[in-house]
Amino acid sequence: QLQLQESGPGLVKPSETLSLTCTVSGGSISSSSYYWGWIRQPPGKGLEWIGSIYYSGSTYYNPSLKSRVTISVDTSKNQFSLKLSSVTAADTAVYYCARLTPRDAFDIWGQGTMVTVSS
Amino acid sequence: QSVLTQPPSVSGAPGQRVTISCTGSSSNIGAGYDVHWYQQLPGTAPKLLIYGNSNRPSGVPDRFSGSKSGTSASLAITGLQAEDEADYYCQSYDSSLEVFGGGTKLTVL
Question: Residue A31: what are its φ and ψ, rounded to 5°?
Fold first, then answer.
């Protein structure tokens, strides 16, 4: 069955760029109708949607993060990626990647990866 | 402050029924967009529990049900079990972005 796995550094310095990759296995990221998204969860807090991308490269972002976020897709590797620039301690969170259905439900999630912003 | 409002916590005894509300506005739930619900057990990723307001993915017990009316939605859990103790989140769509509720912690007494 379809699985998603996040990967990337667990520690990022303030003002630097956080970079994460989500690898999709058991299915194609180029499947029509599905978007792919990033969601984060600060320690002890709720879920925050970061942005989503279609296999064609079409994206939409959370306006609160839009100036710092770039999401891209590599269909040859069956991966999509997140870059968040100028990070601060407030960006410390568990970052999840997930599949977004045509009805806007996140039906399959990765296990999540903890990213800490600290010098 | 979340776009969708949920109570911070609810509780119930085993076997009881509990409901969790999710209040939105005319730009999200009230605009006709679907509401989805997720269950997050401690230390794990969220799991889709209800999609499209009232549909259960395969494998989700029928003790879980969802409904929507106007600018609000509700998740109901009947026959409460200890394993239901978790955080629950609602999610919808609003003005070109995905929005989550602040989450509700369910405690099984």
Answer: -60, 130
Residue type for A67, please?
Answer: S
How high is the mean pLDDT in each 10-residue block of chain A (119 residues)? 96 98 96 94 97 95 96 96 98 98 95 97
Q: CB–CB of B92 and A60 under 8 A?
A: no
Tell which of A106, A108, A114 to mutate to test the B interface (max B CBs under 10 Å).
Answer: A106
Q: Please tell me if residue A107 touches chain B, with a CB cutoff of 8 Å.
A: yes
Q: Tell me the backbone φ, ψ of residue B58, rounded to 5 degrees.
A: -55, 135
Give the distance from CA A50 to its chain's centroid. Answer: 7
Contact B77, B18 (CB under 8 A): yes
Round to whole Å and give the CA distance between A66 and B56: 33
Residue type present at position B56: R
Nearest-CA neighbor of B30 among B68, B77, B56?
B68
3-class secondary structure, B83: helix
3-state secondary structure of B84: helix
